[in-house]
Structures are given as structure tokens and as C-alpha cells.
Fold these 4 entries.
Entry 1:
Amino acid sequence: MTQERLTKATVAECALRLADTEGLDAVTIRRVAKENGVTPMALYWHFKNKDELLLGMVDHVLSGVRADPEAGNPWQKRLRKVVETVVGVMREHPSLPGLLNAVDKTRTESFTRATNDTLALLTDAGFTIEEGYWVAMYLLNGCIGAVSGQPGCPPGTPADQEPEWRRRKRLDLETLPSDRFPMMIELAASYRDEPDMDRYYAFCVDLLIAGVESAAALKRPGPR
């Protein structure tokens, strides 16, 4: 790739691919430059150092997280769409949860815009600005937790090794003392088949939104 074709977006996408496949430690100016077939100096036109590159990755990957405060749908439906989008981006880029913890994400326009949009929805729900920010952080951390704790094999497990991993996990649980851990033994059966990831994530989003809806209901006057 020539320097003329090199843009912030292409650099960020390359860095994200590296982070997703090899981890954040693999992301350096020198390595990303090599992947693009240019010298490190070519990247300095866009990112002066690694910190700026990491922020650029966050800004790029969250660019599609938007909510329209003026849309006609109820706030619950619009908020759900935001959460589903964040979860979708994290599923596509498994490095994102760690990346969000590695930088000051509030320094990126995409994150700030997404937070601003979410606050607008949450004030529609009856929360104060401060409460809305607490809720927004609860949702973000809930998305991170859902992706980081997803069921099934650890990330990076080769597909042909997944059945064996599940078999060993099932056996580990089934051999626990039945008088002390009966529910864990019952859980072992869930490792017989590959988990339904779409069902899992839909359940997680339902759980997150239900918590916000319950808290919003407590804010409204009248019988509960």
C-alpha cells in the first residue's frame, strides 16, 4: 500500500485486525507500518504515537454506534438498538473490551457522541443527567462482561479442537462432588453441544434493557 492510499481508517482497520488475532501487544507503529508495506514515518502523518493509534482504533470501531434522539420509536427500542450495536461490534472485534480499558475513550469523538446520544435517550426515560451517565456505564460494562464471559470455548480455540474442549469441560463438572455441587453437575449437560451464541447475546441484551426499564419505572410517580 502506498502512502497516498494510506488513511486513518485503513491504518485503524489494520491495527484492529492485528489486535483481534494477536492481541493488543502486537499493535505497534512499526508492526502496523510493516503490515501496510510502508515505513513507520508514513503512519506519523495520521498517528504520532501508539497512544494516538489506540485512540484512533476506538474512534473508528465505534463510528457506527449512533442513536437518533428525535426518532419516533420509544426510548426503550432506540436504547436496545444502541446496545445491540455495541455488542455486535464487540463480537466482531474481540479486542475491543481490552482496548476500551487501555485508553481514555472519552477523548474520542465516536465514544463521546455515542454517550451523548445515550444520555438523550435516558433523560427521555426520566433519569437525571448524572443517573443517565451511571446507566450508560452500566450498559457499557454489561456489554463488555457479556462478550468477555461468553459461553463456549476460549477465543482462539481451533474449530477442530472445540468438541474435545467441551467434552473435557463437561467431564470436569460431572466429576464434582454431587453432595456439594449438584447444580454445577447439572450445568455440565450444557457443554454437550455448541452454544447458541445468538440466543445468548439476545438474552444478555434483554437482561440489560430490563434492568434499565425497571429502574425507569421506579422513577415514575404512581402505583408500582
Entry 2:
Amino acid sequence: MKKSDISWCLLYVLLAVASAVLVISGGFAWFNRTLPYLAGAVQFAVYATAGELLSTRMLEGRWEVNRATLFVAASWGFSGLLVTLAFQVFSTGAQQAMVRGFLPFCGNTIALAFFTSALNNLFFGPIHSGLIRVCVNYADLRFTQGGNPTVRQAVDSVDWGELIDFTLFKTIPFFWIPVNTVTFLLPEDYRIASAAMLSMVFGILMTVLRLKERRDQESAAAL
């Protein structure tokens, strides 16, 4: 363990303690109820970025905080706005679909949570994953590799085949739909907080993809 790891471990412990206090005291509920968009942006920026920093340390052996990190944090914050809106749209939409007979088991709380999670992840999840992937790659190309990429170059840098396979056929059905079903069983004021904490996992998954893409590009350039 490096000396810097001790300081970072303390920060993660502080984040965990602060999260626990906010859950117990109702701080998360108040924040998400009173200022939902701001709450979504702040929570996603903090937790998802924490996940990316941790995964970079685990995979590359160093803590990497630079301008790319700030850009990615801002991107996660913007995505938090979209997730906040999407949760409202899909939870209301799933409920109305069940009431009108377009989905079965009307009145069943677990079925409503499952359908909300499934619809949210199948329709919004791939768009969200793609947007974050492009933003992260743009930050990597511009701030880490020192280039001046266009949006088109950032889009082209994404391994879309791998992202779609990884997102649609692996993480969405086997991870995100189940865990977000639990999220939608929580009181509404805690759902975004739960999703933001889970975004730490999302940040780790996105970092794994980014590093794999970078290594594949380096291997291709060496041939």
C-alpha cells in the first residue's frame, strides 16, 4: 500500500460515514425532495467519480486526478439530471401502463418496481451508457492524451460493439434491472440517492471499458 492510499482510504471512509448519516438523519430525503435536479447532479458527480477514481487505482496502480477527472465529474453531474427525470417518467409510465392493462399485475408493488426498472434500463440505460462513454473518452483524448478531439472523434473512439454487448446483454439484464428493482421498492425520496451510490459501480464498469479501449488502441498502434 502506498502512502497516498491511506489518505484516499480516509476520504472513502468519510464518504461512507457521511452517506450513512444522511440516510439516518433524512438528509438525502430532504435534499432529493426539495431540490431534486441539484440533488441528482451532486450525488451522481460525487459517487460515480469516486467509483472511477477507485477503479483506476485498482487497475492501473495510481490515483489519477486531473482536468479529465473534473470534466468527467461534470458529465456525471449532467447525467444525474437526466436520471432524475427518467426515474419520474418511467415510474409514472409503468404505473399507468399497469392501470390501463398494458402491463400485468396491477397493484402489485414488486411488479411495479420490476417493470419500472426494466423499462428505465432498456429504454434509457443504453442512451445513458453511450453518453457517458463518449464524454469519458473525450476527456481521455483531450486531457490525458493531450489531443484536441472533435465530438465525432470521441464518438468514433468508442468500441460500440463491446459497449452494446457489455451493456445490453450483460450488465442490464443481470445487474441493473435486479438492483434497480430494489431501488424502486424504496421510498421515492431515497431512489436517486440509491441510484447515485450504485453509480459508483457504474463508474468502475465504465473505467474498465475505457482502459480496455485504450490498451486495444495501443496494441493496434504497435502492430
Entry 3:
Amino acid sequence: MSRRIAFLDIDGTIIDHAGGIPESTVRAVRNARAAGHLVYLASGRTPSEVEHRLVDIGFDGAILGAGAYAWIGTLWETGGWRVERLMDPAHVARMTAAFREVGADYVLQGREGVWATRRAFARLESSLDAEGRLSDATREALLDHVTITEDPPHDGIAKSVFSSDDLGCYAAVTARLGADFSVITGTMPGLGTAGGEVSPAGVTKGSTMRRVLAELGMTARDAIAIGDNNNDLDMLEAAGVGVAMGNATPEARAAADEVTTAVDDDGIATAFARHGLIEP
């Protein structure tokens, strides 16, 4: 069988909703790589948010920040950053002004840091608590890489996440920013249209995936993309095979070519076996 490359989302795809990583996923990634295939992360997380336990699984590279960054080569050992697609500081200022206008809380994400308003940080804690994942250790881990501030930097920002108690928040943000930015919703559990993400226009997992493939001398036909959420849509559509997790949003299912089992029901291993990356 020819060499394939798999691009895997993290949250809801590799990591389940209780914060665990199924052993079948770890085995599938390692066995696929041992068989000569490439396996990349493809996440909305920025580099500082990639946990050591993910790096320890072993990956051949990563697309991070929903397409803002790409590392080609074994995570963080060989290779390096080949893509960095950041927001213009003036656009960051305009974006944060729009968030304040509509009363949204927000998190700004860069390669080396994350900055959150106080209410946005409290909402992150509440979300983890609702999932049964908040502990003293989890809170310490958050504080290790998140700076709580109402005056974040405007340089070096890749994307943002906004949130509110108002279900009209996504529409209000889109009305102000949608013409010049990429604005999506449905990426934060439980928030629905009360939150979303903003990236520079044209910066997506799919567009950066195409850049990575070109540098590796591979084509979309070689690529399998697996995801569960709305920031995975163009990646699922751009890959030769787009696979939605069994726990995926309706939009992700519609964008994919097929649906595998859920994250906590061997979803990645099932998809890898179906396409010959590992033995059934």
C-alpha cells in the first residue's frame, strides 16, 4: 500500500470529553507510523497548549492554531516551523474592540502564550468543571500557560476564542468581523451560538494542510483527515478521505466522506484499520 498521511484533530478526536486519551488511539498512531505512514496533529490549539502527553505519543508534525502554524518533523525534536500565518496587529485591535462592543469575553492565542480576559478564564474553568475535569492540578496547568489580562498584546496573535451568555453573540461578532475575518461557531461545548472562534481570513486547517502536503511532495489523495467539529470542515473536505468522529457535529458529518465510531469507542483505530494504515 502507498504511503498515507493522517491529520488528526485533538479535542473530541484524540482526547475524549472526560480528558482522557484512549489506549487504542495511542496504539493506532504508533502502529501507523511504524508501518511507514505519517501522522500529524491538526488542532485549533496553539503550540503552548499542546500537552506533553500528546508529544509523547509521537507525531510527524502538526498544524496548530487552526492553520496559523505548521511544524514539519518529529514534534519538537527534528524539523521546525514552516508556516506562521498571524493576524495583523491592527486587525487584533479591531477584533478586540468588536468583542467589547458586543459584551463578549475572549482568549487570544499566540505561539508562545495565551491571554484571557478574567471572565473568559472563569468560563474556561466552568466548562472544565461541568465536564468533571476541573481540579487544583488542572487549574494550575491553565495558569501556567494563560495570562489573565484585560489589556493583551496585539503582536504575535494567531486566533481568538470568544464567549458570552448571549446566544446572539456569534451573529453580532460575524456582523462586525465576518467580511474580513474567518468566524466560526459550534467549537466550544455547551455554548452554541454564544461563542466561536476568529482567525485571519483564509487561514484554516485545510489551507495549511495543502501547504504541508506540497512541501512533503504528497497530494490530497494521500491524505486522511479526522475531526469532530466546525473548525475541521475545510480539512475534511480537502483531504482525499475526510472522516468525522461518531461524536461529531452535524456540520462535520456533512463535510466528511464517512463517519467512524466515537472518540471513546476506538474511533481513530477503527478509521485507520478501515483504510489500511494499521492491521484490523
Entry 4:
Amino acid sequence: MAALGFFYAQPYQRRALTFDIVEELHEALSRPPLLLTNEKLWSAYQRVQQSQVKGAELKRRLTDIVALVRFAIGLDSELRPFAEQVDSRFKDWIFRHNARRGQAFTEEQTAWLRQIKDHIAANCAVERSDLDYAPFANRGGLAGAWKVFGPELDELMSEMNRELVA
């Protein structure tokens, strides 16, 4: 856990949290002698710190390990599913972003942003190349996103990665 604390102490630009890193940590924890899974860890925290643990009844996702780590090293005072944290951060981010822009995102832009948010919740990040696969392909993939956002697309994805995973 000390190494993970160090990871989170780094400036965002120097700590690219990827799905591969999450998967590697999950595999390391589930090997002997630890044999720990997200479910076992979540359940243990539920028994010990019940008032600070939310979503114990939900099926665990691999990315929930991010929430477990953040809680274990004291970055979060409450243990909540990672997807729930991403949803909450997204609402805050979109509100702030719309206020800064002076005008709200269009309905079509917001639909894209919600899909990007869902992708981040499942994969810890979004990259341009992700936009050519489902479910983004149904909206025209990278070309469709570029049509809706133009040159603002890359900065929006970068900002969402930074703000929603934090």
C-alpha cells in the first residue's frame, strides 16, 4: 500500500492510471499468500467501518480496486464504488465546465460525454483510439466525436481523465 500511496502523491501528469495497472494490482492481490479479491476487501471494510462503506450489496467491478486503494491510503473518507465516484465527479465537472464556457454543452455533446464517463468508470481512462470501438462506434467513432467537439475533443478527454479518476 505504501507504493500506491506514493503513486497517488505524484502530480497527475506523472501518474497515468491505466486499466492494465488496475488489472496488475488485482492479480497481485489475488495470488497467494494474500488471496484477496475486491469482494473480500470490500466485505472486510464493511464489517470494520460500516458507516463509511457504501454499495456493499453491489457486484464488484475490477475498477473498484481504485476506490479501495484511495480509501485504504486515506484519500477518501468514504468507500464507494468507483463508478459511483466517477458519476459524482462527472456531475461536478460538467457543472463547472458549463459555467466556465458560458453556455452549456448541447444535448448531443452531453450524450457523448456521458458515454465517455461510463467508459472511464469501466476502464479508468479514455483515449482517442477507444472512440473507434463500441459503444462509441454507434455514434460514428472518433470521426463522430470530432464532428461534435472539433479541436476541443482532446482537451476534453484529457480533462475528464484527470477530473473523473482523480
